[in-house]
Amino acid sequence: MGNMPGFVSIREVGPRDGLQNEEPIPTEAKVRLLDALSRTGVRRIEAVSFVHPKAIPQMADADEVWRRAERADGVRYSALVPNIRGAQRALAAGFTEVEVVVSASDTHNRRNINRSTDESLDDVAELVGLLHDAGAQAEVIVATSFGCPYEGDVDPVRVAGIVDRVARDGADRVAFGDTTGMATPRRVREVVTAVRDRNAGIPVLLHFHNTRGTALANLLTAIELGVTEFDASVGGLGGCPYAPGASGNLATEEAVHMLHDMGIDTGVDLAALIEAAELAEELTGRRLPSGVLRAGPRTRLTPLAS
Amino acid sequence: MGNMPGFVSIREVGPRDGLQNEEPIPTEAKVRLLDALSRTGVRRIEAVSFVHPKAIPQMADADEVWRRAERADGVRYSALVPNIRGAQRALAAGFTEVEVVVSASDTHNRRNINRSTDESLDDVAELVGLLHDAGAQAEVIVATSFGCPYEGDVDPVRVAGIVDRVARDGADRVAFGDTTGMATPRRVREVVTAVRDRNAGIPVLLHFHNTRGTALANLLTAIELGVTEFDASVGGLGGCPYAPGASGNLATEEAVHMLHDMGIDTGVDLAALIEAAELAEELTGRRLPSGVLRAGPRTRLTPLAS
């Protein structure tokens, strides 16, 4: 298993990536979920996205959600934006960490926003500059890093080249999105190794979906390779509306449960997190896919008297 | 990732462990599923169990299912039995590979059959002798090897001691059951290492449930440790009726999908296996938990024209 890290940093993405891909819920419910997550001990939360309400009605009330949320000390909050208008809204709302997205697959990028990956990278460079000028940090999320539903495999060298480019353009961090759950231990190894080989010197975060059951195997592979930052979504909320066949994100409580069992700290109180997952299930009104939400942690025993 | 094996042997347990833990389906349906699986290229199938029909009505027609099945050349079929009566039925039906179960947890064993683990090990020794006398091979399945829902952690040294005992008693193989999905990469490493350290010289097979999302991470850990035999259940059929909170078995197509992606052969035709999983879903009439059944393999692309 190699040397395991002592701490793994989880970014909770349920309030944004999760809820954005569920049926819309009321503003009040979003605030309740965000507040519950802020009390779990998780250190980072992707809180909202600033997107056009016609494109993504689930985030139409992002400003109000963020204004009403009880922000916790010691939690870093971020927002996702698709363009300059979104970045301006995020900055106006007071965010100091902002994410922008580009797809490693040309076809996927064109299908989503009708631009090539290279054209989007020019836009990203402009956004990074705008965010930095305002004193905020910029993370670039590279979607379809582990495969594209239209093209199939995406060359890890292409992914590494995108990382070089965004690092040169000043991005503070890069995240690799497993947009349609095509990541496997092999693909994780290939992408992480290709990026490492280029030595772009930029922090890396991985974002897995559990579409084909591999999310925790991918996480395990990545921490063996020294990656210590991951996205996860409470209860496994969400998916990707533009990606056919995609199912939910890696459930935060499944990630935390496995990591704690391995003696790796996350700062998260698993019991509080499971309560937040129960709340997410109540608020969305659908059965969420998380096994740890369903069965509880392995340490939850069955009373003999039953 | 270390040295990966070139071949991993999957035993398909859907017809027995799967169907035994679903609502009963007609004999004809069981035969159809068994025949479909025999055509997937999988090398081993757990076909039926010979248990008392009042205890497990799902297997009441085991003799007839087995008689009507079209057995494929090159496939090894096995049956599970709880006692001497079951072993006699399995032998009379022509089985030459038979599995018997004992629980590593005393409490779990007592709850199931009102005997201590040690008492059951005496029974197992008798069963192994009976099977050998009839020219059949005997596998001992050690349930709750990675944890007990009543006791919690089970000492890996205790598990290793049970392996010593059954090896001395002549068992041909031993399997470790993750009865309620308490296995994690850490527990897999501990159990496999403890057993290895005792050097009992007996082939080892692992049986995982995906109760808490860890099944493929456990599989990955085990193959890194050199284990090359695993149970899996088509579509993720089944669970464990005696184990509160347990959910389905590791889905065969999720295991095969990840292994093939790693360049590890299983002999299985994944497309045929997914068809069998679709059949399992049709026959049981419930949505099965397998992600690869739902989304298809990562190589199944989305047409751009859509």
UniProtKB/TrEMBL annotation, chains A, B:
Outline the extent of the Pyruvate carboxyltransferase domain: 8-274
Keywords associated with the record: Lyase, Metal-binding
Q: Which family does it belong to?
A: Belongs to the HMG-CoA lyase family.
* UniProt-recorded name of the protein: Hydroxymethylglutaryl-CoA lyase
GO MF term list: hydroxymethylglutaryl-CoA lyase activity; metal ion binding
The record, for PANTHER family, names: HYDROXYMETHYLGLUTARYL-COA LYASE
Q: Which stretches are annotated as coiled coil?
A: none
Report any one BP term from Gene Ontology. Answer: L-leucine catabolic process
Question: Record's Gene3D superfamilies?
Answer: Aldolase class I
